[in-house]
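Step 1: inspect the first sequence and its tokens.
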Amino acid sequence: MSATLASIRIKNFALVEDLTWSPCRGFNAISGETGAGKSILIGALKLLLGERADRSLIRAGADQCAVEALFETADPRPLDLVLENHGAESCEDGKLIVKRSFSASAGRQFVNGSPCNIALLKELGDLLVDLHGPHDHQSLFSRDEQTRLLDDYAGISETAENYRSLRSRWLSLRKEKETLSTQSQAVAREIELLRHQTEEIAAAELRDGEDEEWNNAHRAASNAKRIREICSSATGLLSEDESSLSSRLGDLGKLLKELLRLDERTAPFESAQIEIIEQIADLSRDIESYADKIDTDPEKLAEIEARLDTIGNLKRKYGNSIREVLDFSQTAHARLKELENMEERGGSLDSEILAAEKSMRSLAENLSQTRAKASKKLAAAVAAQLLELGFRQAEFSIKLDSVPDFGPHGTELAEFVFAPNPGEPSHPLRQIASSGEISRVMLALKCALAAQDRVALLVFDEIDANVGGETATKVGAKMRELGTLRQVLCITHLPQVAASASAHFLVEKKVKEGRTVSLLTPLTAEERENEIARMLGGKSASAHQHAKALLGEPQTR
């Protein structure tokens, strides 16, 4: 078994004040008067499976309600994988604890002590519990579900999953090809534009900050004549004119020499004067050199202006500065490479699509061949189970109908076909109107698939409705048989079914301190006989005699 329910605690939920229940590992029957609260157990389990919390079910006077369950498994790996994907604590010693509580304003849920979301509860629920009730059979009507059941029976679930993964990739490749084909003209235009833009910028060979250098050069070239005039005047003042600084400093030098003869302490003055003369000479030479470099050639000015025009044109198109123009070029180049790769991708997609389709076709053929063989075996197994459930001349078969192209399950879908009455035509299972017949077909399928079923806990909520007599006895026997391979919880009104259980629990309402509460208690052998007698219609001697006959040998837990 993948995981069995070791215990469940329900607190302040509907009529339950505080209930702890530990079912046995086999077939558990739960009975009680109508309205006693049997459905509360189903509601509590559904909460743990992630169903919507109905806050109106919080027990009157309580702030919140809570449901907590302990599951035990010998192989926690499938559960641990799900827990790991959600960042929750793994199972310790094969134990999984699931808890959910909610108040009028908020709800919380935990797995192994870690807070979690509802999605994790639902994913775990798919591995933990298979719940069936009067309105839970609809999944059997789905051809997708029927095909999945057939694959489980045939042992090709993994192959089917590999096929679906491959199909998903095949569809993705086809969509990508279609998208590329639709966008091909737009992509070609964008590539052409990006190539022009990147080539235009690259041809300019821009340097970050060079526009300032060219602006300075332009100002100098535009004012070359005036600059030369200024330089000439400056050199005249420094050294060339009769009253230049150099001449005046010469006169100063004569005075300082005479001063030195009179007082040797003035020697530093003469040294300073000589240093100033040298600095003025250097400055005059530097100005003359600068003036010599000033180009008054109109062609040089035109060259500078052409470079500034090129830079200005690029800045108007691609950015407010050379840095922004260079950044635009880098981004455009990256986009161009991406689009060119898309063009190349379009050429390789056809071969990838063909390769994926070839592999997918091979898996689909493998699935078809295996399903064709397994469908006959499963139909025969279900028919045998139906025979034991009172359908003496019923016919059950599985059709495999081809689907166009490649469907989610391959090139066909399974259809469960059932003819409950001899001489009547077969119909798809979804067209069978009787809930009693559907319940027994579902039970037959569960028995036939018991060895392959991945879920250990089966919960049946009054699926034995609309059956009785000898058929009810057979349903009970089948439930007990199923309990040897799976943990079964069955809420039932049929004494024949309850008598077949390995353990029997009674749900009853009692008044406690002026409040109505629902209680769930295990029945002793004597109590069980009394409950079976009640279910048979009374407490008469004949009812007790019939109850003893149904119970046969004392049942053990």
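Step 2: inspect the second sequence and its tokens, then contrast the two.
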Amino acid sequence: MGLRYMGTELIRNFSIIAHIDHGKSTLADRMLDLTGLVSGKQAKEQFLDSMDLERERGITIKASAVTMPFKHEGKTYMLNLIDTPGHVDFHYEVSRSLAACEGALLVVDATQGVEAQTVANAYLAVETGVEIMGVINKTDLPAAQPDVVGEEIEHILGIRKNECFHISAKSGAGVKELLEAIVTLLPPPKDNSDKPAAALIFDSHFDEYRGVICYVRVFEGALRTKQRIRLMGSGRTYVITEIGKFSPHMKPVDTLGTGEVGYCIANIKKLADVTIGDTITDDSSPAEKALPGYKPPMQMVFSDFYPGNNTDYSSLRGAFDKLALNDASFSFYPQSSPALGFGFRCGFLGLLHMEIVQERLERESNIDVIQTAPTVSYEILKKDGTVKRIDSPSELPDASHIEELREPFVRLEIITGTDSYGGIMKLAESRRCKLIKTDYLSQTRVMLEFKAPLGEIVYDFYDVLKGISRGYATMDYELIGFEKSDLVKINILVNKAPVDALALIVHRDKAVMRGKKLIIKLRRAIPRHQFEIPLQVAIGGKIIARETIKAYRKDVTAKLYGGDVTRKMKVLKKQKEGKKRMKSVANVQIPQEAFMSILDTSD
């Protein structure tokens, strides 16, 4: 691949966008195969998904890039494929990948049809202004209905069904024609080779020996080895030590020209020094203005992580630092709790993102973590007119300072079979979701759009939805903004002392019911002690529910027999005083299960 490509007309930059499991990674594998980049020996399923977790769960988590040579009508084209994740929590990674492309393949499964994330990703592509090509995959399966799916694509996304390509990524049928279509139908990058260098960083990862490796797409000019570059966002300067392409492994080249995609290594020591979406330019003759970057990812779900049994605070800190090197979209800062000691408050894009981070912590750094129930962030309008954003119920100021409490609302799209319509409507109603519109995609499938409070759908909504629809429904959500709601803070008192980690912010209508359920669960989760433990739910200064964990009692009257009843009363009274004294000085051990029981909103 030592060819220098002249001009940009032989370059095509594209990404594949699809719902989970619609065959995106398999299609990428087949393309690597057809262009001769990966020979039969090296070929393995999901070639671009390098993380163990990606391979196990069969999902793409990090975007990755690869450059393929493709010969067509006597010319050799350079195809740059930027692979994207399909899951709603990694929406942010998709927007980054699309910004580096001119075209996108929208892949839809011929047996499943259009799903919620297909719609979300297609809208994202339209907003970014890339050219979209419809691809119907898995047409070789017995249950495939390419015509019905083609009509759905035309109805929702406006891509004509006779313009969709029918392929089978697994067998490779139709993939060569698809590559030819990419070359003929997708536009080449604009030729800006005469301008000063400007390259967009669309991803980065950390290598222990070489520092930060930036994934770049050159929009103007060129990048060369030994060039002194400047990151326009931070103003820092570095010298490029190596530049190259992924084909599919890292392969050094001397220059990356306009329109090309590759990597750049410049002795950057910390991932924090590189902002995804920043522009790399030449230090001596910089570009006039930076390329439009990305909106920073908005963390919506927050949870506390504390060191578990065989882990100390410093190793947890080290594990977080290491993880932050590869994942720019998650944040953490120190936090302490009287019940659990020192730990971290972490912010995530969504629940799957939280699960992945927790699993990566345990797997890559071999540590145990205790995790509190996830919460969403809220906005407070104070009496003095200032607006503050809080990520945890414990940060809520006194009610006398609050003018109004606002919670995050999302636009929720659910695509489901018409037979589970009723059950989903009932579920949505119970979670305070308002139906905005219903759109029938075909006789058997319907798309529902709701306005929903994020706090109600962030816990187990997706699991319940899958249960109601027997696994067929898919959902996608997008933040609309914060709106005023009638919210209250529930405090849980254990032995009359409030436990911060158990506090919750809920809607007033549900406060009493949620509080009662909570302490019943706590009563079962906290073991009995030598003294009686009262559990109380309080809103403000008012106790609204109480449960009691009974004490262990030794039968102190066993060796008394006969005689006056006052002897018995005297011994019992003595025992009672002992218990009372014990209760006033003792502290209650709250196990990890108790914190986790708060998380479970099922009955």
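Step 3: confirm your contrast with the notes below.
The chain has five domains: 11-185, 198-282, 302-374, 390-484, 488-599. Confidence is low (pLDDT under 50) at residues 1-5, 41-63.
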